[in-house]
Design a protein that fits this description.
Layout (H helix, E strand, L loop, with lengths): L3 E6 L3 H14 L2 E6 L2 H10 L4 E5 L7 H7 L8 E6 L3 H13 L4 E6 L4 H22 L7 H9 L3 E10 L5 E12 L3 E3 L5 H6 L3 H21 L6 E6 L8 H11 L7 E6 L7 H13 L3 E7 L6 H6 L4 E4 L1 H4 L6 H16 L3 E4 L5 H9 L4 E2 L10 H11 L7
Parallel strand pairs: 1-2, 1-3, 3-4, 4-5, 7-9, 9-10, 10-11, 11-12, 12-13, 13-14
Antiparallel strand pairs: 6-7, 6-14, 7-8
Length: 398
Amino acid sequence: MKPYKVLIVEDHPFQHEYLLKLFRNDGGFEVDSAWSGSSALNLLQRYEYDLMVSDLFMPEMDGVQLFQKITSLKKRPAIALMSVASRRLLVSAGLSAKNLGLKVVGLISKPVVPNAVIQLRSRLDALASQAQEYATISLSLERNTLLQAMSNGQIQAWFQPKKSLRTGKICSAEALVRWCHPTLGVLPPSDFLGAIAQFNLEDALVGLMLEQSLKAQALWRSEGFDVPVSVNIPTHLLDSNDLADRLYQKVLDAGAEPQSICFELMESSTTEKISNFYAGACRLRMMGFGLAQDDFGKGYSSYFNLVSTPFSELKIDRSLVHGCLERESLALALESIVDLSHKLGLIVTAEGVETQEELEFLRRIECDLAQGFIICAAIRAGDFIELLLEDSPKPALT
């Protein structure tokens, strides 16, 4: 296999030579090095690298400034950050890089150990495999293609269960969009939601997801299960003053109750006017819908909005859940958020739960609900019935 081209940026003489030796001894890398951020930037402008490993603390141009500048490059390497500083500082720097669109494959505390280099190579292998997989996918993301997929049933609502951390029972579900493509198989939302937004089809998608959720509820109800469903709304859609009315009418036309639907305001956008945010949120609640702040801790959400908006539910973003067992600061933040939410009368749901240990921690801090792959991925409405049947009380023996 062709070795990865890596650029090491380190100003300390001993660390510089030590890192060169580590990467060269591994055998999976072709290594260049730079002593400063400016010299690294010069090399990045002239050559293409698969990976840049940079110290955070350097004179003239530190590591954070360096990756801010490389966002302008056409070919940007994956990033690994090194430091003797606190883990919290490393994580913060990594989040800064990720939010600039860079691929962060490592946050490494010094001194760097050989196993950290092996892990970097494994993550680069995963990125290369992913890139090769995506290269084989050819989607024609035109407006008419998306509209046709929405009208012919290819774009569907699948459902991920939310389980109570007290009883272990399924108590609701979230509708998540999937594209069942005739030749490419089931595509995740990351493959097409950008185009949905680009062609101003988000409003139509929300309507479709609501309609399919109402049909799923009717199906489940015919089997004896009454399951509330959450539907995502990009927050900027609240700029449409009649959004609440249109959603309410869809529910009435289906013969359903607004109380069975919760709308989750997504963190991917905000309204043009803050008044539209509060007006839209109030009107949805006045019509009887549940209202959740989605992805709390990730984007535009704030404690002021939390205490000022008539939410019925708070959904904690998975970025706060992952690592909560290793990082005391995350654990304390989660406990504080759960406590405040309960004082405000909100149901608290943790998203993206992946391990039994995370479930146990969330149970200890009295989080109400959890969803994530450890419980179940999103599945079709018909398959969801099987989960409900497994979850329901077994008949008594006679």
